[in-house]
């Protein structure tokens, strides 16, 4: 391919002088992100998308592999990489085509803790023969936190996930932990002498 640009004697773009140059026809790999991570409760799974694009002018051929770097499980376990999988593992892209790689994080049957590894993308892009995307997963346990879960309660606990029935509410005057009450006459105060 031939690209032509014009430049005049002042250095500004114009039509006075022409210079021709050629752009090398090569595959060029582009990723939508260079690392992926997630945090999951034990027993859950989630997925993210790695998008690989060929922004070059020749076919891009790539393949993926994964290597664990930090693993909470015994390294002798056959399923030590079960917490992370991906598909597809290889593809060929024409110019300006994309490939969507589903990355699946799985905290089922794994211990609590931190897991990490490297997703390696090998391709025929001469400027990026190998690219590495760090992968990490934190598996945590759902802890029961008792407290008042009603936001209208005076002692509302935003961190509580189980209501223990201890919510306390404002008195009739809107005061938290106040002593006012509404008597039979509809009067709201804490003076029993004017009760009906």
Description:
- This protein has a five-stranded mixed sheet, with no helix packed on it. Strands 3-5-9-7 form a four-stranded antiparallel sheet, with no helix packed on it. It has a two-stranded antiparallel ribbon with strand order 1-2.
- It contains no helices and 15 strands.
- With 196 residues, the chain is mainly β.
- It is elongated.
Secondary-structure map:
Blueprint: E1 2-7, E2 13-22, E3 29-31, E4 36-41, E5 45-54, E6 60-70, E7 84-87, E8 90-93, E9 98-106, E10 113-123, E11 130-140, E12 146-147, E13 162-163, E14 181-182, E15 188-189
Parallel strand pairs: 4-11, 12-13
Antiparallel strand pairs: 1-2, 3-5, 5-9, 6-8, 6-10, 7-9, 10-11, 14-15
How many strands? 15
The residue ranges in which pLDDT falls below 50 over 5 or more consecutive positions are 1-23, 74-80
Widest β-sheet, arrangement of strands: 4-11-10-6-8
Profile the largest sheet: 5 strands, mixed
Strand residue content = over 45%
Computed over alpha carbons, the radius of gyration is 32 Å
**Span between termini:** 98 Å
Helix-strand string: EEEEEEEEEEEEEEE
Structural class by sheet pairing and helices: mainly beta
- The outline comes out as elongated
- The averaged pLDDT comes out at 83
Fraction of residues in helix: under 10%
* Count of helical regions: 0
Kindly list the characteristics that best describe this protein:
five-stranded mixed β-sheet; mainly beta; 196 residues; four-stranded antiparallel β-sheet; disordered N terminus; 0% helix; 15 strands
């Amino acid at each position: 391919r031939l690209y032509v640009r014009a430049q005049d004697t002042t250095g500004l773009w114009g039509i006075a002088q022409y210079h021709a140059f050629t752009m090398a026809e090569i595959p060029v790999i582009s990723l939508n992100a260079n690392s992926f991570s997630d945090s999951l409760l034990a027993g859950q799974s989630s997925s993210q998308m790695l998008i690989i694009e060929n922004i070059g002018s020749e076919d891009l051929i790539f393949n993926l592999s994964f290597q664990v770097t930090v693993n909470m499980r015994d390294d002798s376990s056959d399923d030590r990489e079960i917490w992370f999988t991906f598909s597809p593992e290889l593809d060929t892209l024409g110019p300006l085509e994309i490939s969507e790689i589903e990355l699946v994080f799985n905290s089922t049957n794994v211990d609590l803790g931190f897991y990490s590894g490297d997703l390696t993308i090998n391709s025929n892009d001469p400027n990026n023969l190998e690219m590495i995307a760090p992968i990490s997963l934190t598996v945590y346990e759902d802890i029961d936190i008792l407290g008042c879960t009603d936001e209208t309660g005076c002692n509302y606990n935003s961190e509580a996930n189980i209501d223990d029935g201890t919510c306390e509410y404002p008195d009739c005057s809107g005061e938290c932990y106040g002593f006012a009450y509404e008597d039979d006459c509809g009067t709201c105060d804490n003076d029993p002498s004017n009760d009906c």
